[in-house]
Amino acid sequence: MTTERDLPLDWVEYYMQRSTSCKSEMVFDFYRQGVINPETPIRQAPMVAMDFETTGLSLEDSEIVSIGLVPFDIRRIYCGESKHWVVKPEQDMTEESIVFHGITHSAVEAAPPLEVILDEVLDAIEGKLVVVHYRYIEREFFHKAVMELLHEPLLFPLLDTMQIEANILKGQQGFFEKLLKKPLDPVRLGYCRRRYNLPHYDAHNALTDAVATAELLQAQIAHHLDPDMPVKDLWA
């Protein structure tokens, strides 16, 4: 398990180090592409929204069961280039998780394991700024899965729309609200989208949630952020 303290202070240097020390050819190819220049204005950044559905919320005993990816920038979402995979987990899914994400036993039985599609996933995100809503899910589950498959860490900077929204809400609080430590409004994906009058989408589909995350970031930039700010001011 990684923590925020474990993350590199300099992503450029980290990519350079990993490209010379990794043993897996797949991981080497990923890091060899390099990370996006930290000084790149967000308006010029090629981005890809990522979302996972998992068999549960516990990192210790849950697995990725679907992955959604959609490339975008601050103006357009390239749905025609989006990707969605159902992934066969090693352990059987519980009925509770099936109700949550709607992926059935028969769907996962016909799906490939993560190791079969991992190269394609990495190809889709390399060289792009990966955007998620609540980075701990995507970062921790992906890191754990790659460690189990390749026995090597695979970390990259993430832009977290949940954290961005929390920062925006904190900035909007008045003096007395801060003094009284008034709780922030909810920052789950659906609640955030409502604040920008974005349309309602059914949740818990990885591709739909990836599109919803991309749209949310576009709205956050349009209403609150400077599109000329460098990506290093937003990523974690």
Commentary on this structure:
43% of the residues lie in helices and 12% in strands. With 236 residues, the protein is α/β, with parallel strands linked by helices. The protein has a single domain (10-233), classed as Nucleotidyltransferase, domain 5 (2-Layer Sandwich), CATH 3.30.420.10. The chain has a 5-stranded mixed β-sheet. Helix 1 runs antiparallel to helix 2 (25-32). It is globular, with a radius of gyration of 18 Å. The mean pLDDT is 91. It holds the Pfam family RNase_T. Keywords: Exonuclease, Hydrolase, Nuclease. Residues 46-226 form the Exonuclease domain.
Structural class: alpha/beta
User: Helicity, in percent?
Assistant: 40-55%
> What's the structural domain tally?
1
The CATH architecture category equals: 2-Layer Sandwich
Key descriptive features of the protein:
236 residues; Nucleotidyltransferase, domain 5; 5 strands; 10 helices
What's a quick, concise take on this entry?
By secondary structure, this protein is α/β, with parallel strands linked by helices. Helices cover 43% and strands 12% of the residues. It has a single domain, classed as 2-Layer Sandwich (Nucleotidyltransferase, domain 5), CATH 3.30.420.10.
What topology does this entry show?
Elements: H1 11-21, H2 25-32, E1 47-54, E2 64-72, E3 83-86, H3 95-101, H4 105-109, H5 114-125, E4 129-132, H6 135-150, E5 158-160, H7 161-172, H8 175-179, H9 189-195, H10 206-223
Parallel strand pairs: 1-4, 4-5
Antiparallel strand pairs: 1-2, 2-3
Helix pairs in contact: 1-2
